[in-house]
Design a protein that fits this description.
Elements lengths: L8 H19 L2 H17 L10 H31 L17 H8 L2 H12 L4 H8 L3 H20 L14
Length: about 180
């Protein structure tokens, strides 16, 4: 088993920009993304001896970062619900589609995807992870990665191809 000091400093430094890019895609706020990366590196250095193989460092770091994001997201939702329950807190508002420039249409479509779908698309398409690496990183079976990735790509295509006019809501008759 490798010791914590076996984490190669140069390798960690080389992965920081990729970790930061992944974190920023998840949280959309540079300061919060840097906090996520810092927490990831802190955890890696603290628990480095639990990593089994040196070649799994990249996947392991992305896994730590993603799990920290999910934990913080859940914690934030819990606090928002409590604030709304006790303090009548305000609901989050998403930026309107009219404000997004046409040159950024695909990025805007990407931003509308749930964080899980953005994470999958980034890990496979941008970071070049294999389906196996993504499955190991997220702790899910490879088949789940494949089906979620297919749904993410379909959602991105649908969001990119939609007409800029708001769609008329469809009503469903309930009996």
């Amino acid at each position: 088993m490798p010791a914590a000091h076996d984490l190669d400093d140069a390798t960690l430094r080389a992965l920081i920009p990729r970790l930061r890019r992944f974190a920023r895609s998840l949280v959309h706020e540079p300061a919060a993304a840097d906090d996520l990366v810092q927490g990831t590196l802190e955890r890696a250095l603290t628990h480095g001896r639990t990593r089994h193989t040196p070649d799994a460092l990249q996947s392991w770091l992305f896994s730590i970062l993603y799990r920290q994001f999910v934990d913080e997201h859940r914690r934030g939702q819990r606090w928002r619900r409590l604030a709304q329950l006790f303090g009548g807190g305000e609901a989050d508002t998403a930026p309107s589609a009219e404000r997004v420039a046409s040159a950024h249409a695909s990025l805007a479509a990407f931003d509308t995807l749930p964080s899980e779908q953005r994470a999958l698309l980034l890990l496979v398409s941008v970071e070049g992870f294999s389906y196996r690496e993504v499955a190991d990183t997220l702790g899910v079976p490879v088949g789940t990665v494949m089906s979620r990735l297919a749904r993410a790509r379909q959602a991105l295509r649908a969001a990119s191809e939609t007409d800029p006019k708001p769609a008329r809501p469809t009503l469903k008759v309930l009996r």
